[in-house]
Amino acid sequence: MRKRPFGTTRFMAAEIGLGCWQLGGNDWGSLDEKSAFEILAAALAAGVNFLDTADVYGDGRSETLIGRFLKSRAEEVFVATKLGRTAELYPDYYTEEAIRAATEASLARLGVEALDLTQLHCVPTEVLRRGEVFGWLRKLRDEGKIKHFGASVESMEEALLCLEQDGLTSLQIICNIFRQKPVSTLFAQARERGVALIVRLPLASGLLTGKWTTQSEFAESDHRHFNRDGQFFNVGETFAGLPFEQGVALADALKPSVPAGWTMSQMAQRWILDHDAVSVVIPGASRPEQARANAAVSDLPPLPGELHTRLREFYLAEVAPHIRGPY
Ligand SMILES: NC(=O)c1ccc[n+]([C@@H]2O[C@H](COP(=O)([O-])OP(=O)(O)OC[C@H]3O[C@@H](n4cnc5c(N)ncnc54)[C@H](OP(=O)(O)O)[C@@H]3O)[C@@H](O)[C@H]2O)c1
To answer: Cβ(315)–Cβ(307) under 8 Å?
Structure first.
């Protein structure tokens, strides 16, 4: 597993991390505790040292399980959590007291004295623009409650707003073969400012595995069922903003481009790693073998330049017009 500097921190992040939304046990169907620990163990055994979670994933369950799991492990693991989407804060009840209370709750669930990284969790653009929330995070950092802060955003407009903030360590963005806008809009500026980029949804919620047909179905409690068209949260999130049937057709159209002997998931994650502005990719996994397969992408060679060109043209001509929501 190769490592990359995490922004201006001293931490070297394994370039493939683990997204831990799935460990919450809701929004993705159900996942029992034993399976959650097996996924975490598989990821760490494969060299993963960066976990992404949030206070809302399973109403704290994802953080609690990570905290319990790491207690028994010797490895140095960087845990990035998020705040800002609980009913106490969202959509616009952001106060210093509420941010502090959310931070204390994450500290208790993770069982640590300081959070490695806390990220604003897709808070409204207007809250980012007002900016006072960053002042409260700086204060918590100065008090030692958090070591670093960052923001997870939906759009490039939001990403660029956050880049203006002193002390911002990282930005979490959607970037994959179906969502290439950050490459031209954000990467150069983020690198210039030493801000780490965490890439979520590398597989567009699984579309970029190429494993589905338009007949595929998801459990009722899976966001790919109940938020398929953005009914419950941002329309740009589930399936990276693509209508499901369109996404399946686009993944099918990509199949001839997958290098011989590779899977589409490998091509999709390698495509992201081929951009050196990226610090860490955080694929989610619902099974240990997925976490292992994803971690192994770090050892694959870069994609040929000609394939990058073809994928860029494919995105511009075939995909971009179908993405819904601001991005
Ligand atoms: N607003 C935010 O800040 C935000 C929003 C979304 C996600 N995130 C973070 O980003 C992480 C990743 O995003 P995501 O999980 O939504 O999307 P993703 O990584 O694009 O897709 C994950 C899904 O892809 C499938 N998959 C993963 N690896 C596979 C493999 N090797 N082979 C076949 N299928 C594979 C699994 O689907 P099946 O379960 O169907 O097998 C898995 O649940 C999350 O866990 C979370 O930490 C943050």
So the answer is: no
Q: Using DSSP bridges, classify how beta strands 18-19 and 278-281 pair: parallel, antiparallel or unpaired.
A: unpaired
Q: Kindly report the length of the chain.
A: 327
CA of 282 from ligand 1 middle (Å) equals 8
For residue 28, report the distance from its CA to the centre of ligand 1, in Å: 9
At 162-220, the pLDDT tens digits run 999 999 999 999 999 999 999 999 999 999 999 999 999 999 999 999 999 999 999 99
Q: Whose CA is nearest to atom 47 of ligand 1?
A: 19
Options 3.65.10.10, 3.30.460.10, 3.20.20.100, 3.30.230.10; CATH of 3-322: 3.20.20.100
Q: Which of 209, 273, 289, 298 to mutate to test the pocket of ligand 1 (most atoms within 8 A of CB)?
A: 209
With cut-offs at 50, 70 and 90, classify the pLDDT of residue 28: confident
Q: Is 20 left (phi over 0), alpha (psi -120 to 50) or beta?
A: alpha
The residue extents of the domains of the chain are 3-322
Categorise residue 286: left if φ over 0, alpha if ψ from -120 to 50, beta otherwise: alpha
Ligand 1 atom having least distance to the Cα of 154:
1
